[in-house]
Design goal:
By secondary structure, this protein is mainly α. The chain is built from ten helices and no strands. Helix 2 packs across helix 7 and helix 5 crosses helix 7. The relative contact order is 0.11.
Amino acid sequence: MNAADSLLPDVLRRQTRIGVVLAAAIISAWLAIHIIGIFFWRWSLAAIPLATLMVLVQTWLSTGLFIIAHDSMHGALAPHHARLNRAIGVTCLTLYACLSYAALLPRHHLHHERTGRAGDPDFHGGDPSLLGWFGQFFRTYYSNAQMARITLVALVYTVVLGAPLGNIAIFWAVPALGAVAQLFVFGTWLPHRERDEPFADDHRAHSIRIAPVLSLLTCFHFGGYHHEHHQFPGTPWWRLPARRRENAARSAEL
């Protein structure tokens, strides 16, 4: 065993610790806003600015839930802990919008196998326009069964727990739909659309040229570092900027 191999377990243990801690923080923050907004929020004119801020933060956190589940699908959240990966992924997708982890898992891996080609579930179905492509994306990931699950939860919230329907719409539906837009625009459309600049390789993915802070705020680095993600799908979202720096350093040494 060489030195690099001996360090690998420590690297993976650190990756698991950081990934799980970040996942717990995002899930906890999302749950706090979700519970307060739906069950305890009382509306007034003075409360509107704070409510607006909460919705914006919850939209970003909802995007984060999906990205955590995405890392789970690649085994990047907790390497060598398959059950933990899946449990956290299922939890995140359920909280976000009652999505099915079992249904999304094979579709996402097919996206990596067929990126930008026939059979890629994330690619446009012949209409590369923003709205046409978004329609294809939405139909791929959102089903009647998922809508039925959301409706059932909303009924429990309103009929059993007494939550106002308006609060459910504002603090759950609006952030979830906003996150869909974020994930599509910054995580699919901009990285995978054809433009004047050719794709760097067969991964057929661009990294959007934005500052790291904006990359984090738009789509948890899956816009600004999307090419790196397709090169190294086992790299978790929070390590993508470091992965680019490491690649640049290796290239400089050659």
